[in-house]
Amino acid sequence: MTNLLTDKVAVITGGAQGIGEAIARRFADQGAFVVLGDRDGAAAELTAKAIGEDFARGFGCDVTNGEQVEALLQFAVESFGGVDVMVNNAGITRDATMKKMTEDEFDQVVAVHLRGAWLGTKHAAAVLREQGRGGSIVNMSSISAKVGFFGQTNYSAAKAGVVGLTKAAAKELARDNVRVNAIQPGLISTEMTRAMPEHIWESKMAEIPLQRAGTVEEIADVALFLASDMSSYMTGTVLEVTGGRLM
Predict the structure, then answer these.
(1) How far from the centroid of its chain's Cα atoms is residue 215's Cα?
(2) Distance CA 39, CA 53 (A)
(3) Taking every annotated instance into account, which residue ranges of this chain make up the domain Ketoreductase (predicted)?
(4) Is 155 among the residues known to form the active site?
(5) Euclidean distance between CA atoms 63 and 76, whole angstroms
(6) ∠187-72-114 over CA atoms, to 5°?
(7) Close Cβ partners of 235 (under 8 Å, ≥ 6 residues apart)
(8) pTM, entire model
(9) β-pairing, 238-241 with 85-88?
C-alpha cells in the first residue's frame, strides 16, 4: 500500500512533544518530510533527531511572532524543497476563573492559540499559493470551543476563534486548492492531563460514552486523514475526536 504522504513536506507547530510529536511521527511513517516548530528549539531538534535526521528537522519558533513563523516555513522550503501541509498545533493553558484570571493570562492564551493559528495559516497560505500545487492546513481546536469549560474563558474563546478562522480561511483559499480543516480533541491522555487531580479526571471520564481517554496517536491519525488526499473533498470542517463526549 502506498504511503499517504509520500514526499510531502509537513510543518507542525508545538512539535517537540505530545500531540505535535505524535503527528510528526505519524506523518513521517507515512512518507512525509517533517519540520517541527517549537518555542523550545532544542527540544524540537531532539525530537526530530529521534524521528530520523533524513526525514525530520527541528526549528525554534514562537508562533505569536509573524517573522518567526515565516522563518519556520522558509526553513522547511530550504530543508526539503517546499511545503504541502501546515499543522497549527502549538498551545498553552493558563486556567483560572474569570475573577482570578489576569489580563496577561487571557492575552497569552489567545496569542498562542488564535494569533498563532492565524499566523500559521496566513504564512503557510502564501507559500502554498506561490507553489501552485494546493495543500492542506490543519488547525487544532478543542471540545472546549464547543461547550466551554469552567476556568477556561481564555482557552474556550481562543479555540472557538480557531473554528471561525478555519471556516473563513477555507473560503478564501479554496480557489487555490488549499484546504483548511480543524480538529477538536476531547480528553486525551498526555503528560498534562495525567497530572489532573483524580476527582477531576473521573468527572471528565464520566462524560465519555466510550469510557476512556483518547491517545495522541488517535489525534495524529485524524490529522493524517485531513493532511492526505483521503479528505480531498473536505474543507472548512471541524472533526470532533472525543469518544462521544458532550455530543
Answers:
(1) 15
(2) 20
(3) 8-186
(4) yes
(5) 15
(6) 45
(7) 170, 173, 174, 179, 180, 181
(8) 0.97
(9) unpaired
In the numeric block, the cell 493570562 is attached to 105
Domain residue extents for the chain:
9-241
The catalytically annotated residue of 36, 87, 155, 214 is 155
Band the pLDDT of 129: cuts 50, 70, 90: very high
Query: What CATH class has 9-241?
Result: alpha beta
> pLDDT for 165-185, tens place per residue?
999 999 999 999 999 999 999
As a whole number of angstroms, the distance between CA 91 and CA 72 comes to: 17
